[in-house]
Specification:
The protein is built from ten helices and 21 strands. The protein is of the alpha+beta class. The chain is elongated.
């Protein structure tokens, strides 16, 4: 495969984003599509966007700032390497440089090319506490690119893996929503089986027991040092925990760990301690270690697992936790002492076991889809550098 040495700036137009003034509430209220690094992934080209129509007036107000659908959005401050392809016209914040491919290059290929060059780009970063690479330096980085036809073939092959991963993600989102709807129906709206014939007294159905979360589960603090871990031990940090999802479907390796962490076991529940309003709560599918900035929660009995999971991942619980969090010197943290005092209405064993029997198969499907996506990522990441170098002919 013949490769040509080119600068990133020669592949298309680079646009640096800009955070709008706080007076422009329309950005924060979702009137305009606005991308920040939290909308990007390390492992998928899909950008988490709400579809919004961009008006001509908006384009006139922010001349040359809107990027078109298909632009590659690359984080160049702090989380350098988070990258995606915008699915629609959008604005970005100042942490993102967007590459708008010209007619001589394939957008999906350029996405994978920049992913493959992340270590080189990170090595060009300045900054002491916060890594940063400015637009000028970003544009000057040189990389090898093949002919357009080869770019298109490589882009199509690699993106087929990401399309399957995204399909899994969408299926998981539907499964999670089904679990949340059932929880809300039974435990919030109190429309559980037999509710028509059950009297409600002060918000608690007859036969149910008013308890607190601490009666149902416990916090586990099993600390482990980095030198006691095998390098390939799964590691779940806050950066691996998605927002508003009960599936912890990504993890790194313990070789990244430099300080003591908490040992975790499959089936335990993690709650992101820092800034709890970020809503990072989910179930673990692997044994391994987790960030010490998480709260590891273990139900006291198996039959309580589904109720505990759905309670601590609910919007109401997260909101209450955020209201009662400790104000730290740098960032607020969730307080387990307050969390375990949260009131929970617990149904009789029959209803509890029925609920558990519905939720657990959903969790099983989420686990299956998680490992399917992990295998797809592994296959894609094995192909990526070999295709980029020409080791595998296309």
């Amino acid at each position: 495969m013949k490769l040509s040495r080119m600068k990133i700036g020669d592949l298309g137009r680079v646009v640096t984003g800009k955070t709008p003034p706080t007076k422009h509430r329309e950005f924060f209220d979702g009137e305009y599509p606005f991308i920040t690094p939290s909308d990007l992934e390390y492992d998928s080209y899909y950008v988490r966007q709400t579809e919004t129509t961009v008006t001509d007036d908006a384009k006139a107000r922010f001349t040359n700032q809107f990027i078109p659908a298909g632009a590659i959005t690359y984080t160049c401050i702090a989380s350098v390497g988070k990258i995606g392809i915008s699915g629609q016209e959008a604005l970005t914040n100042q942490q993102i440089n967007s590459l708008i491919p010209n007619e001589h290059h394939d957008g999906k290929f350029l996405y994978y090319l920049l992913r493959n060059e992340t270590k080189q780009i990170q090595g060009r970063c300045g900054g002491v506490a916060t890594p940063i690479i400015n637009k000028s330096d970003f544009e000057k980085i040189e990389i090898d690119v093949p002919a357009l036809a080869v770019e298109q073939t490589i882009g199509a092959i690699l993106s087929s893996y990401d399309d399957l991963i995204e399909n899994n993600r969408r299926r998981m989102a539907l499964l999670e929503e089904a679990a949340r709807q059932l929880y809300r129906e039974w435990f919030v709206r109190l429309r559980f089986p037999g509710h028509e014939h059950t009297r409600i007294t002060k918000g608690v159905p007859d036969g149910w027991e008013r308890m607190v979360l601490g009666n149902l589960c416990e916090e586990i603090r099993e600390s482990v040092s980095p030198d006691a871990l095998e390098p390939n031990t799964p590691y779940i940090g806050l950066e691996h925990m998605p927002r508003c999802s009960i599936s912890l479907n990504e993890w790194g390796k313990a070789e990244q760990v430099t300080s003591s962490k908490f040992r975790i076991r499959a089936g335990e529940i993690l709650f992101g301690k820092i800034r709890p309003y970020f809503h990072k709560v989910g179930i673990t599918f692997v044994d391994g270690v987790a960030s010490s900035d998480t709260i590891v929660i273990r139900p006291l009995e198996e039959k309580l697992h589904s109720l505990v999971l759905m309670t601590v991942s609910s919007d109401t619980f997260v909101a209450v936790t955020a209201q009662t969090m400790k104000e730290g010197a740098k960032m607020p943290r969730a307080d387990w002492k307050q969390m375990k005092a949260y009131p929970v209405a617990v149904p009789p064993d029959g209803l509890l076991i029925t609920f558990h029997g519905v939720i657990q198969p959903i969790i099983g499907q989420l686990r299956t889809l998680t490992f399917s996506s992990q295998r797809l990522r592994a296959a894609r990441d094995l192909l990526l550098p070999r295709m980029m170098s020409g080791e595998i002919a296309v």
